[in-house]
Write a structure and sequence with these properties.
single chain, 214 residues, mainly alpha, two-stranded antiparallel ribbon, 64% helix
Amino acid sequence: RTDELVDRVLQSDQMRRAIEEVVAGPAVRAAMAKQTTGLAEELVVGVRSRAVLVDDRIERRSRTAPSPFAGIATRAVAFGIDAGLILVAFASLAALAGLIASLVGGLRPAWLAGALLAGGWMVLAAFYFVMFWSGAGQTPGMRLLRLRVRAGTGNPPSLGRSIVRAVGTVIAIVPFFAGYIPVLFDERRRGLPDFMAGTEVVYDDALGSTRPEA
C-alpha cells in the first residue's frame, strides 16, 4: 500500500507541476548557468596553460626568465578559434545570400557565384581581424587565450598597421605557415606579419599579473 501510494503521488499532476516549477525556478537556472560557466572557464584556463608550456618548450632559444611574448602554440590556438568564428559567420551570411538569390531565380553563371563566395570569405576575414586588432588589440580568440597585439608604443596597432598585418598574415599562411617560423627564433617571438607591421603579440597577464608557471 505504501508503494502504491508513493507511485500515485509521483504520477499525480500536482507532483509533476511542482517538479516543473522547481526545475524551471530561477535558483536552479542560476546554479546551472554558474556551473556551465565554471566548466568553460576551467577548460579555457587548462588549454591556455598547456599552450604556454608548449610555447616555451618548442622555442629555439635559451632564456633565463619566462618570455612575456606569445609563442607559436598559443597564437595557433587563438587563430583556430578565430577561424572557426569567421567560418560560422560566413556560413550564416552565405545561407542568407543563397536564400535571397533563390527568390530571384539563382545566381548565374556558376563561376560568378564561386568567385563571390571566395571574395566574400576574404573580405569578411580581413574585416574581422583588422577591426579587432585596431579597435581592441585582440580578437575573440586572442581574448580567450589572453593574448594582445600591440605596436611599439604599447597601444593597439593603428588601422593602417592592422591592414598591413592582415596582408602579412595572408603571405605568412600561403607557404604552409612558413611565415611564422621566425617566432621560434626571434627574441620577441615575431612572425612575418609582426615584422611587416611593426607589432608584437604579448601575454595579457604579462602586462599586469604573472603568467602561468612553466
